[in-house]
Amino acid sequence: MADGNDGTAHDGTAPDGTAPDGNGSTAAEDGRPPAAKDGRPPGAKDGRPPGAKDDGTSRPSPRERRMAAWRAAPRVLARLGFLAPLGERLALLEAAGSVYDLDEDSDIYGNGVVAALEQRVAGLLGTEAAAFFPTGTMAQQVALRCWAGRTGDPTVALHPLGHPEVHERNAFSQVSGLRPVRITNEPRLPTAEEVRDFEEPFGALMLELPLRDAGFVLPTWEELTEVVDAAREREAVVHFDGARLWECTEHFGRPLAEIAGLADSVYVSFYKSLDAFGGAALAGPATLIDEARAWRHRYGGNVFQQFPTALSALIGLERELPRLPEYVRHARVVAAALSEGLEAGGLPWFRVHPEVPHTFDFQVWLPYDSEVVADVAIGAAEETGAMLFANYWDPKGPGLSFTEVHVRAAGLEWTAGDVRAAAEEFARRLLHG
Questions:
Q1: Among candidates 121, 89, 92, 87, which has minimal Cα distance to 315?
Q2: pTM for the whole thing?
Q3: Which of 11, 65, 134, 222 lies 20 to 30 angstroms, CA to CA, from 303?
Q4: Which string of DSSP letters, residue by residue, matches 131-188?
């Protein structure tokens, strides 16, 4: 989380955005170059550029220690593809032949495999059409710009913790002529009453599902439908920032198409949940998507060839999408066991938020300075080989910090007992220094 004043944020990990976060939203997409806080390039080892030799005097920074511990630990809760070496990332495409006919011509300006991906997304979300975008930032600006032209109102009601407000350097107002208004400051999605009684008119309501910077939180299905109905009563369109919509089905108990069907348009990401190389899609009515394609060209998003990203997205839809509900269910096991272990270890106060995770990501809050807790987390991983907390610890006030915990395929190997034991060991180390 961040202050949102200039759009820069660590996006849940180290300030450089290159540490394991599992959220997919990297520093580069949040408006900052993917370089370390001290200016070192990503991939630097022990404070040196890749390929440089150790002169015997360099000492690893805390971030470098954390990354090394995460990569070396036999037991982690998530192995995140975007942090893997290039060779491993390229190896993902070895499965490309199972999701697309590789004898077909390559894509040129959005045809071929890119068009096939768009059709697949539209089918999954139950929309008339979908358009591929290189980034979600661009996709959402285009969507809301198109809606503003249709409604005649450039005002977008959204949450102040929403991605455009926190991570995009005021792109709505600076680039697209949109006027964001904040509908509630509570760390949750807005209620139907707040939408219905908001004192200003707005042409579009934007809902981030889940609201990541509030703890990956979601409303209930009844609350969500009531919020959408309240917006429609005001003759506003509803757009879902569904970067992580793929992982919401378990919480809502509804298929993707039914969830997406509540909105007038939906954006989804291919790398936040599906482990693709990048990319996004905007889905909705065919007339909207046709107009969005024109604006995509104007924004510079009609890229000549996108086949590696499109193929990786198709692989993610084939491999990861069916497993996401299992990750969510296990994240709830992990969160409960983590709470039990921290309590058994003697911590007088901590917070797992949400107590029962809504997706496979959640927060842990501790009453310690971030440097202290990070050092203990790294040391425990180095000495035990089990890394509970692979992410950056964010200072949120004097003696208070939080981190994000992500559960993916690697986390399925942990039993509740494994998590409790690791959490108890971590707590004891934290208490006794």
A1: 92
A2: 0.87
A3: 11
A4: EEES-HHHHHHHHHHHHHHHHS--EEEE-TTSHHHHHSTTHHHHHS--EEEE---SSS
